[in-house]
Fold this sequence. Notes:
The chain is an alpha/beta fold. The protein contains 26 helices and 31 strands.
Amino acid sequence: MEIPSKYEPSSAENRWYDYWMKNNYFHSIPDEREPYTIVIPPPNVTGVLHMGHMLNNTLQDVLTRRARLMGKNACWVPGTDHASIATEAKVVARLKEQGIAKNSISRDEFLEHAWEWKKEYGGVILEQLKKLGCSCDWDRTAFTMDDNMSESVIKVFVDLFNKGLIYRGYRMVNWDPQAQTTLSDEEVIYEEKQGLLYYLAYQIEGSDEKVTIATTRPETILGDTAICINPNDERHHHLKGKRAIVPICERSIPIIEDEYVEIEFGTGCLKVTPAHDVNDKALGEKHNLETIDIFNADATLNSFGLHYEGKDRFTVRKEIAQELEEKGFLVKTEQYLTKVGTSERTKAVIEPRLSDQWFLKMEELVKPALKAVLETEDIKFFPKKFENTYRHWMENIRDWNISRQLWWGQRIPAYYYGDGQDDFVVAENIDEALKLAQDKSNDPKLAIEHLRQDEDVVDTWFSSWLWPMTVFNGILEPDNDDIKYYYPTNDLVTGPDIIFFWVARMIIAGYEYRNEKPFKNVYFTGIVRDKQRRKMSKSLGNSPDALKLIDDYGADGVRVGLLLSSAAGNDLMFDEDLCQQGKNFANKIWNGFRLVKGWEVADIPQPQASKLAIEWFHAKFDQTLVEIEDHYSKYRISDALMATYKLVWDDYSSWLLEIIKPAYQKPIDRTTFDAVIDILEQNLKLLHPFMPFLTEEIWQHIAARTPKEALIVAEWPKIGKNDNGLIKGFDFASEVIAGIRTIRKDKNIAMKEALELSVINSENASNDWDVVIQKLTNISSISYVDETVEGALTFRVKSNEYFIPMAGTIDIDAEMKKIREELEYTRGFLQSVQKKLQNERFVNNAPEKVIALERKKQADAEAKIETLEKSLASLL
RNA sequence: GGGUCAUUAGCUCAGUUGGUUUAGAGCGCUGCCUUGACAGGGCAGAGGUCAUUGGUUCGAAUCCAAUAUGACCCACCA
Length: 876
């Protein structure tokens, strides 16, 4: 059968993915082997594959496949996250297109639509992961709103409530007026925006005097309930105890004093709006101020907004500024750079808002999680620098607002039975709730229909923080076989952007619910950026279509492309050229295989050169394997790939195959052939985690294999004896080869023309490698001589001198120039070494080993100089 | 405002407890080669005052300090 000269990925990829699925290699069940577990960072159900996912999941697949090859019971659990805000927004938008308003349908009807949506689109991203080659255990695919997941969430909520860690509070929270829900502090992104600072003059009550304040939000004056000055500010002492009149609404408000006010900022006078600013709220509580909320839930003004009622806050800002100016209250405006909080999901400007919400007390929960990372190193971060970020957040942690005013998610299991602040119970189901409510209210006649469940759901992260446990049902059945076997998981691969949202909270939950870490190592990937260092995003349109990339370069090519430049924790500048490099590599491997496959095998003696080359490659392979293992142990995946790349491209293809290659249309001896097939198979194993499809394809081409013998479940190579002498000998020989090639190049001597080589072997180098040198450079004979050969081109390796006699004239000047240049360099080098050795303090203080090395360098350089001088003399 | 990290070849990055030839890799670049695995290839080559300035040391890309530039994280100055 003719093998095409170009590797065609698309058919192979589908074929082998189906084969792997059919033979159940991805599926894991507990057995006597050591487990290796990864839980996927569940992408949003609304998501489509982007470059970040590609990188992230390629890394997970590399780790999983390698673990599998190493004989571990590898289990990579896939799944998706219900992403309440994002998904609810999409469903709302879709309903709107169909002419249905969310508030016109019931909660249950809405949820039906949402589930319908999930059924339709929820699997898209997982299907895309298959295209990438991800070897997830699809039988275990989970979703954060699966029944057992939701039950777990409720159970945990009730438990934390009963422990006194969850409480209900009337607090200032981050309100997203577009999604109409609260957000946690972590979901608020601060963006710098150019705005205006308005200076407004308030009339002092009962006088003609005025007081000027500065604000960025003039529309909130309608909610003002005080003006605050710093008691140490002498400019304003005359205002103490007086009252001011708020413009437009003409409310009389007190002038209070507090050191919180910065004397330097603005005019040193602050307007206080307790309903719409966290600091103002604190002031309000301290000074017992009235709280006036002027906004509706969608951030339009309510009746306190007077004639602005019903208008949006930003419209009002413009209009009220105009009115204030017309009425003479506006003193001036200044350009002002301010930080505005926006919603991570909807991008809407966050409104601080007072409302009843559920909070989780973090202070105690955090302690074991902090210790595990920073003290005991039970959990290791790669790269380590993120431990600082983690520490900082954990040590300054605030209570977590876990309630969201949404429908898509786990509904808060609180049941109200009366109108009092305290008239509620928390229970896993309504029957439990009824019993508790009857007890608490002392009213045995209380019935189910009297109970109203809280309308809110919990934050999405309140379900995903349990993910490493709930995917193995470890909350509902804490003693089941899966959780006992797979937990704690081994590696977590994720982005540093969710270190607080998710990573930290999983660690907290792990210690609280299993008294054990959720994972041993966390590998933080970088952010994928484009060549101009811009973050890849939909709005910029700079994110390539993942599936198109796979079409163009093959999944293996894309995987290699992504991994080539992704040191842990460093952002990665993605460039399609890297995928091209990956594709080229795949083709190189393919052709290396094609060459070997095309050879005719005969029972003839093994050439000495082949024997030596194979021994050398074994040594080189062992040496590289040590390197690769070291890289993996430090999660330096891109270095592990590069080491493999060089082994296969340079050592295997460029050197080994060239040395053993039989003459044109001549057969190869069986011994060499068998050895090279074995070597190819070992290489394929190292390559498989990076390039699963291509390697399986070649593996199965080499020989007919039963499913048990598939590459995906082959045995990872063991580290061998690593013979250094062979590697040194080869390195020396390769320098000789390069010298001869350079001469051929310079003098334009075709490879067909055989040359002779003479050598003055001052280095006493072994002649074992002569056969290899001869084969690769078409040297007919190598003779060992004592004296300089006249009329020859020369080159030197260390202090060995090589001669290639030339029939024609030798350009003496050029030869001399070359030698002089070498001489100059070597003398310079010798000088620097001598300078060190002549320094008494160096000789006295440096370790023995270092001095010996310097002496060796000196001797080598001196020998080389002697050789060069002799050659030069012979030319004169 | 506080903090973390970076700065090495045209680009992307290694350089592990200071000493392994006068600093490496991949890509790119420049020449030449090209019927017998692969032009998605081969061979050879050019290219760096290791951000700057001081300091410690026998010895610094590596340790320390300051400066500059950039990135990220945290923080309630209207």
